[in-house]
Every structure is written in C-alpha cells, then in structure tokens.
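In the current project phase, we have settled on a layout for protein records. One protein thus recorded is set out beneath this paragraph:
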Amino acid sequence: MDATPVKRMAAPLRQEVTEALRRAIVTSEFSPGERLVESTLCDKFDVSRTVIREALRQLETEGLISIVPNRGPEVATLSMKQAEDLYEARQALESKAGALFAERATDAQCTELLSALNEVKAAVADGDPNRNLAVKDRFYEVLLAGSGNAEIQRMLKIVNARIQMLRMYSLASPDRGAHTVAELTRITAAAAVNRDPDEAARACNDHVRNAAAAGLAELRRILEG
C-alpha cells in the first residue's frame, strides 16, 4: 500500500496562526468573552477556515478559548478561583524548576539565563508590554530547559498558556516591571551563579507569589468594576 503523502506546509502554517491568535488574546486584542468569528479570523490572518478551526481547537485545549453552545468560540473568561488555582500550580512547579536548574544546568545554560535576564531588563526599560511578555517567555524557556525535567516543562506549558492573560494584568500594576527585574535577578543569581537549589526555589516561589498578588488584584478590580 502506498504511503499517504505528508502535507509538510500545513503544520507550520497552523502553528503560525495559532501563535498569532494566542498572542492576540494574551495582549488583549481580543477581550475575555469576545466572540471569535471564523470569517473575520480568516480575513485577519489570510488563511482558510480549516486552518482557523485547527488553531481554535488547539487554543481550546489550552483553556484560552471556550466553545459556547449557540454562540461558537469565544475568548475564555477566568474566575477568581480559577486564577488563584493557576497561580498556586505555577508557584509549586516553578519553585521545583528553579531548584533543579541550580542542580542540573550546564555552564552554557547558566550563561544563557544571564543573557535572557539582560533581555528582560532592556524590555522593562523600553516599557513595551508585548516585548516584556516575549522576553519573559524566553527567560522561562531557558530556566525550564535547564531543569532537565520534561514533565515539569509539559505541565507548566499547560498552566502558563492560561496564565498568560493574567500576566498582562500583573504587568499593568504600577512598578511591577522594576520588581520583576529584581526578582528575576535574584532567581538568576541563585540558580545560575551560586548554584543554590534552596535559594533558587525560594526566589521562584516569591516571584510567583508577588506576580499573583499583582495579577489577582487587577483581575478583582476588573471583575468588580
């Protein structure tokens, strides 16, 4: 039996559109509860309905989109309890990842984490929220890779896909950027310079706790407003 040809360009296009739509949701181009009309998305990204539907299905599995009966897909809305649960999960996983990085990371990964920290500092100085998210994502990619634990990476990917929207809330908090730089500097020093697992875990724990306080306060204000 002849093998079925593989459509080599389909997956990269779907991934590209999925990432673009994910970013639009995270940066509040599409607001929580807003309907996502397939025809509008097709025009926006200049792709077929098939590609849009595949992207929507992927983002539904990540919890960023909800399929509502008689309405179709819309941007998911997080309750306070869901947001609190996500931060708790992130706190536990990132603390462990920080400790493992201190124990397992290579010298090259330590150097890469220092470089990623410098990118965060530059982005915060520029005041660009979109760039802030991108460089923080890069910082965590390096941290998680250096942990050497694929399951922590997998679980945090699922958690962070939903918590991305909350990160925009925490970034809206006054002076949060400066605090973020200080907290990530502490994590980097503990994990990549001093190779201290206990301090790295504490630093990660404190960073997520502070981000949660800022993000949940802003979410509460929005929900009550």
